[in-house]
Structure formats: structure tokens, C-alpha cells
Design a protein that fits this description.
Radius of gyration: 42 Å
Structural class: alpha+beta
Oligomer: single chain
Strand content: 25-35%
Largest sheet: 8 strands, antiparallel
Length: 554
């Protein structure tokens, strides 16, 4: 037999690193054979001395053998049959010029070639493609961390450097009526459009700041401006306003049904309320206007608006994100959909002005209601305190019950009298508090009314949200280098049922090496159950399998 000893081999019986023994190159060599050929080695001819599992081999040392203890791996080859076994050198004993090498067999290198795998759970893997297998990754072995500000990535491509928006309004059209008579009124969803006089082209999308100024003009003019709708004059009031970015790709087309609101003096620009076209109103389902594929990226962790975002679950495949809307005669809503979620984002783009064209008496009523509510809350706390005091007094009188019983012989009668007294005191306290409450409410309600100018109070971030549109939240980590090194060394954490995956991997797909670990394995092959047990332990423990032996020292 030919015994070959190798120096400084990276293989150990911990099996943290192994070589591919499943694929052979054009020279009929595996990655293990190619790697061993690169090492300094010594050939020894000996008799048939191989013993399965472990054994010892004696041979004579020559003066040219050098530092013999650097040999840590060996191959035993039957030159007649071609049968080879690989072993770890466990110990070397040298007496005079005779060396005795103790060895234990390398289970992976000897038996993995015949191993077959079926229905096994792969729980960690560095690469995503294994020949015909596509293994999704679910998380990293190490998380990104950083103290930097987040970065916002536009999900939808902008036409301009700044965001352009359309103004969608919920409008109540009404007619004034005599006192006690319900007035005629209609609710509509309109969008605001404009055009220069004597021209036919309508302009609907405009910069956010311009849209805000136009919206305020529309609200301010609602107190004394009438519009003509269906041949009749109506008053109007704005309930809700929504800024719709042009990146949502909603087609707001103005037609002959647009009704004039006002003309800006000196510019000849006229603004109109325009109803939605039939193509917009005629849909009974959400209409998705934009769809984007978001490539897997662990630095992307949320999708949404600048004020409201939702988690992305990275799972190794592209995330399809859709933006859409639903419109009817009286309603308009915007939606974001991804990863089995449907999210209503209308509120984020809505300009809220709860105090619109409002008279002084309405403002006073609101202020009074708030103050009375606060007062009642405080009185409720005080009433609770009285109940606690009443409970304490009952406890105190219970202690005195024993003494009264001994002195009078009729404790129940005495206690009834005491409890009645205590209860009366408590009720007086509660009644006094009610009187205080009533007087305070009268004082607030009868306060002299104050006057206020009609105006608009803005309480939303719609302009900010509209300027950003739909964004992807991206972390800017401090440990990106460390995370990438961790991926390279230990891989992604994944879960996938696989069959014979080690055979399906090709060196072209796997590149230099791969890191693998299994949570459950079902293997069989040309080996005993003792060998199968060791192979399972290797697969459970996790290992780096090399396909390209030239990359080990890179």
C-alpha cells in the first residue's frame, strides 16, 4: 500500500471545514484530491496495514524527512485496486529512527461521497442558488446596527426633482334655506384643476406649496362664493382635502363638467371643481396604478410614508409593492399593498383643518365643552377620594364594634347608628361636590362670549408626506463590514426542505465555498449506522464546504 503523509492540512476531526467530494473535474479529481496535491507530502510504501476506524502504522525515518511532526493528515492507497482511505494523524511516536503514526479515519472524506439525502431541513446557508434549487434566506446571522440617521429611498420614480400633486376634495354643495327647513345638499369628490383663459388645456398637477396656497384660497372663498353645478347655483364647503402625488399615476382628466370656482385677478388663471371621470368611478375594486419589485436588501426595513411606515419581512425574494386607489362619487382612498398587507394611507396625504369657516359662537361652544369635560374629570377623582375616606371610616367603626358589644350587649344596634352617621356625613360631602360642579358649569356656560376671525387651523403633515411620497426606509449601519463578513463565514439563516442538495450544488453556482447547517437530516448510503451517526453530527453542527481549493489562502 502507498501511504502519503501531508503537512499542515486544514482538515481536522471537528469537521468545521470539509471538501467537496461529490463533483469531479475534467481530470476526474475532486476538490479534496486537488487540495491535497498542493500540500507538501511524503510517500511511504508499506504492507496491507489499514484498520477501519483507527490504527497505527510503523515505518523507518530517513534523514531527509525533516520536521516529521508537521504531518497531520494521511492517505492510504491500495495501488492495485485503487481503494483509498483518508485519515487524521492523531499522534506520532519516534523511537530512534522508527516512527509510529496513530490515525483515525476521516469520516467525511471517506463516506460522504456515497451519502444520499432526502427530505432534510436546511436551516442555514450562505448562497441562495444550488443548481436547480432556489433556497430563500429569511434572516442574517448578525443584525445591522448603527447610530446614524435613516435614509429614505423613493419607491416610485419622480418625473420632476420635486413632487407634483393633485388636490382631491370632498365637497358639500348646499343651498341656503329658511329657519326650520332642511336645505338641499349634495356630497361630491372633486379634484381641482385650472387653465388659462381662452386655452383648452387643464393643469391638475402642481408643486405641493402651490397646491397648499390654492387650497387655502378655496377654503377662504367658500364663505361668500357660489358655484354653478348642473345649471344651478350652490354654496360649497370643503370637508376633506387630499394631496395625490403624480407618482401614483392616477389620471385626473377634466372635461366639460368642470365647474368654475374663481379666477385669480391679474393672471387670468381660472380654477375649477372637476368630478372624476367615468373610468375612475366605474370600478368596484381597488385599482392598482403602479407596481415595483423591491430587490432583497436587509438594509430595507420599512415601507410607507414619512410619518407612517410598515415593516418589511426579508425572505430572500423580491417584494412586490403596489400603489392604488378607490374612488366613488362621495369617497376617495389611497392604498399601499405588499406582503399580504393592504394598508389605507389616505389619512397620511390628507390636509386636516378641523376648524374651518367657523363662527365665534361655535368656537365658544367647543371651548366650553372642553373645559366642562376637564372639570368633570377632576370632580370624579375627588369623588373617588371621598369613597376611599368612607371605606376607611367603616374599617375604624368595625374595630370599635367589639368594645361596644361588651359594653351594651347589643352591638348590631349600636353599629347601625354609627354607620348611619358616617353615611350621612359622606352623602353631605358628595352633595356639596355636586353643588360645586353645577355652579362651575353655569359659570363656564354663562361666560361672556368672545369673537374670533374666521380661519383655518392646519393639523396635519400632508405637505411633508406628499413631498416625500412613498418611501423605503433604509438603515445606514455602522457594522456593514462585520455583517458582510458574517454572511461570508456563516451564511444566511433559512428554512428549506431539500433532497440530495450537496450533489445538486455545482462549483460554478457555489463559487469558492459554502456554509451549511441542518436542523434535521435523513441520510443513507454505503456505510454502517455508526458512520451515519457521525455524518449526521457533521450536518447538524454546521460546516464550511470548499469547492475551490485555490481560494483557501485568499
Amino acid at each position: 500500500m502507498l501511504i502519503t503523509l501531508y503537512k499542515n492540512c486544514i482538515l481536522t476531526d471537528s469537521y468545521s471545514e470539509v471538501f467537496d467530494v461529490f463533483h469531479k473535474d475534467s481530470n476526474d479529481k475532486t476538490a479534496l484530491e486537488r487540495y491535497l496535491a498542493t500540500l507538501e507530502h511524503k510517500d511511504i510504501t508499506a504492507g496491507d496495514v489499514y484498520v477501519t476506524g483507527s490504527g497505527k502504522i510503523p515505518f523507518t525515518l530517513n534523514s531527509e524527512d525533516g520536521v516529521f511532526y508537521q504531518y497531520n493528515y494521511m492517505r492510504i492507497l491500495n495501488e492495485v485496486t485503487g481503494f483509498a482511505r483518508y485519515c487524521f494523524i492523531d499522534a506520532i511516536a519516534v523511537v530512534s529512527n522508527t516512527a509510529v503514526v496513530s490515525y483515525i479515519e476521516d469520516i467525511w472524506s471517506n463516506y460522504a461521497e456515497t451519502m444520499h439525502m432526502r427530505k432534510s431541513l436546511l436551516t442555514r446557508s450562505r448562497i441562495l442558488n444550488y443548481g436547480t434549487w432556489q433556497v430563500p434566506f429569511y434572516s442574517q446571522g448578525m443584525e445591522y446596527q448603527g447610530n446614524n440617521q435613516i435614509s429614505f429611498v423613493d419607491l416610485l420614480d419622480r418625473v420632476e426633482d420635486y413632487q407634483q400633486v393633485a388636490i382631491v376634495l370632498q365637497i358639500q354643495l348646499y343651498k341656503l334655506s329658511q329657519a326650520g327647513t332642511v336645505s338641499e345638499r349634495e356630497i361630491f369628490e372633486f379634484f381641482v384643476t385650472s387653465k388659462i383663459q381662452h386655452q383648452d388645456n387643464f393643469i391638475t398637477y402642481r408643486p405641493v406649496q402651490s397646491a397648499m396656497e390654492i387650497l387655502f384660497d378655496i377654503i377662504a372663498k367658500s364663505s361668500d362664493t357660489k358655484v354653478t353645478w348642473n345649471g344651478e347655483e350652490w354654496n360649497y364647503e370643503v370637508y376633506n382635502a387630499t394631496f395625490v402625488p403624480d407618482t401614483f399615476n392616477i389620471s385626473f382628466v377634466a372635461g366639460s363638467t368642470a365647474t368654475e370656482i374663481f379666477t385669480v385677478t391679474g393672471t387670468n388663471v381660472t380654477f375649477y371643481f372637476a368630478p372624476f371621470a367615468d373610468s375612475v368611478l366605474g370600478n368596484t375594486e381597488i385599482q392598482y396604478t403602479v407596481s415595483r419589485q423591491l430587490a432583497p436588501n436587509f438594509k430595507h426595513f420599512k415601507i410607507g410614508t414619512i410619518v407612517n411606515a410598515f415593516d418589511i419581512t426579508q425572505n430572500g425574494t423580491a417584494v412586490e409593492v403596489k400603489v392604488g386607489y378607490f374612488a366613488s362619487k362621495t369617497d376617495f382612498a389611497m392604498y399601499l399593498s405588499f406582503q399580504n398587507q393592504l394598508i389605507d394611507i389616505t389619512r397620511d396625504f390628507m390636509v386636516e383643518f378641523p376648524i374651518t369657516v367657523q363662527s365665534a359662537d361655535v368656537t365658544q361652544q367647543q371651548a366650553t365643552a372642553r373645559e366642562v369635560a376637564n372639570l368633570n374629570a377632576k370632580l370624579g377623582i375627588a369623588a373617588g377620594g371621598m369613597k376611599v375616606a368612607e371605606g376607611i371610616m367603616h374599617v375604624g367603626t368595625g374595630v370599635g364594634q367589639i368594645g361596644l358589644g361588651v359594653a351594651t350587649g347589643s352591638p348590631s344596634l349600636a353599629m347601625k347608628g354609627l354607620n348611619s352617621t358616617v353615611g350621612a356625613i359622606s352623602e353631605i360631602g358628595t352633595g356639596a361636590m355636586n353643588i360645586v360642579s353645577q355652579k362651575k358649569q353655569l359659570e363656564v356656560a354663562n361666560r361672556a362670549l368672545y369673537t374670533t376671525n374666521k380661519g383655518t387651523k392646519l393639523v396635519s403633515n400632508a405637505a411633508l408626506v406628499a413631498n416625500y411620497g412613498i418611501v423605503v426606509y433604509e438603515i445606514v449601519p455602522d457594522n456593514e463590514t462585520e455583517v458582510q463578513a458574517n454572511i461570508n463565514n456563516t451564511g444566511y439563516v433559512c428554512n428549506e426542505i431539500v433532497d440530495d442538495i450537496l450533489r445538486d450544488i455545482t462549483t460554478g453556482t457555489a463559487n469558492k465555498y459554502n456554509v451549511m447547517s441542518f436542523d434535521y437530516v435523513n441520510i443513507y448510503g454505503k456505510f454502517t449506522q455508526r458512520i451515519a451517526s457521525v455524518l449526521r453530527d457533521i450536518l447538524y453542527g454546521g460546516f464550511k464546504i470548499w469547492y475551490d481549493e485555490t481560494a483557501i489562502n485568499e
